[in-house]
Amino acid sequence: MIEIKQFDITIKLSYIVTTVIYEGHTYNEQSQSYRVSINNFYKNEKRTIPIEFRNDGTIEYTLRLSSAKLTLTITEVNLSVNTTKTIPIEIQMSAVAPQEFVLVIDFINIKRQSQLIFDCQTVQPQLVNSMQKTDKNQIMNISQSAHMQQIWNKDLQILLPIEHEITFKNDSKAAATLNYKRLVSSQDVQTSLVANFRMEPDNLIIPPKSKVPVRFLYYPVDFEKFDVQAELLTNTSMDPMRIPYYVEFHTPILQTTQRSLIDIGLIQPGKIFKKIILTVENIGILELRFAVSDPLRKKSFVKVATLQESSLNVRPSSINRPLKIEPKKQRSFDIVIECDTIENSSMPEIIGLVEFELISLCDPVIDIDGKLVNRTVTIVIVGHTLPLPDFALPQDLKPSIWSDLELLSSSWLYQICQEHSLHNSYIPLVALTAIAHVCGIQQTKTKLPLTASEWAMFCMNLNSDNQHKNKDSLTLDMFMNATTTNMAIDILIKLLRSTLTNYRSFFHQSSLFHHSFSNKESIRLQLFSVINAAGNIDEAYTMQSYALKLWNTYEQCSSEHGFRQSIELVHQCISNDCVLPEIIPTFTKFIYQAIQLTEVTVVSQELSNLIPSSNAFGELIRCSIKLSDLKWFLLFAHIDDNIIELMIIH
Questions:
Q1: Could you tell me the pLDDT band of residue 48, with boundaries at 50, 70 and 90?
Q2: What is the model's pTM?
Q3: Which of 15, 298, 421, 511 lies at a CB distance of 3.0 to 4.6 Å from 354, suitable for a disulfide?
């Protein structure tokens, strides 16, 4: 008999089901190829997209991802049952569309492979912008002290930025990019401009169908009209997008004629009355208010010195009751001076009698110290102790902008100063030629004379170049003879003046005091005289600020520390001038700090602190070296010898 037994057998089937999800769209595993369509790229866009892989099967498995064109940061994905993992995939589009990208999906330890194919299309982004009407042509009125307080940041000591808000709207399906590039002139878009201007935020990606507000911030350093266009780079066009930015400041502006120094002629005992020696004009847009100070720096023999209005014959008002001038109008002033007899016969030919300050009450300027102040103009009244020579004033004394003035070579100046005793007998020749060189004469274009023989040759060449204009000849010996010195100076001035094509006014004003260059007081007057040749009121104000600083330094200067104090003067003049490029004040600040140090080791440490530690040269000087002389040599290997001398010796 056969016994039959029954067994229950349960077979459980395991299966793999992978679901791919992108932006809410599900791609089930019905075939070995999935196609994902993305139609909102812009040209050359790099985008990371999230792809979700979900295990809808009954067993755990691992995927291996690979692609010839796609960038993958994760190449293996382990999926437990009923889990989902998001994998970032980077797509880099080119300028050519459409493009296809294939993601190969292998199942580890399972003979199975799928593909996820991305069909990518590009769309041209579209950006439109808009701004508030008040920002399109912004006018800022500054006529009261409250206005000045509103535009000044007391903590940072800078003018507050002027902000324009621009709204950019992206109307397309693709993202738009936006980057600030530069400023250009509204009159000539090919001309790039330099200003403290920026866009916040910058380097933007503006999503499709969205708006983004952007701020244009301009940090002014003066009150000139700012008419520019901001150039932006965007993927909406091959050409840059240009957004206009316009700010105009309406202020009063005080302008004087003469600029600073006024010559009233021969000084005689008794009362001197000069009519209309000074004109004050308001060349600004708003009403000007100003006051005239009491007499300053009055000479002991000057009993009375008064400025009075030509039409009213009364003394100007005080600050409590200022004078007013409407825009494009002017007021004229006479001067009354009463003098005693001048007893000191050793006085120079031209002397300063008295000074006045014209103090504006709301004519704002940023001075060379970077401060917001009211414009103040110094008027210097001078007179002659000797009868005026009978000569005709040069023609074309119209002031001009100083942008094309030449610079004197520092090495030439240094050598002239070091060998002063050799040139002392003909120093007027040296001084007047230096002034003419600054004004651009051709005879010194390549080289200024240094030795006596070179100066003699210069005089000879000057004669030959002007023989048809001047009958008198000039020789070096004429300057060395007391009886012919004045004649030589007069001939030299005529010869130099005739060779000038520009800056005749600058040369005339700079050479007024050639008979008394060595007189201490004349140096100050010379500085203010040059201001008369300034091309505009801002140039004149800056030169006045330089003149005051130079004079203060000169009064306190000693011959032993002349070089050190020269550096300090340059530092004072430009270290806080916000108009200058940042690199210039930075360099002068370093030199100024260096000359304050007196010990070699301290200067060495100061220099080493300025060299980046990552720099190979920096690493070398910071390594442990017992030979201090070697370290010192390395520190100064690339520093000019003259700078080393200024820092260490002087």
A1: very high
A2: 0.77
A3: 298
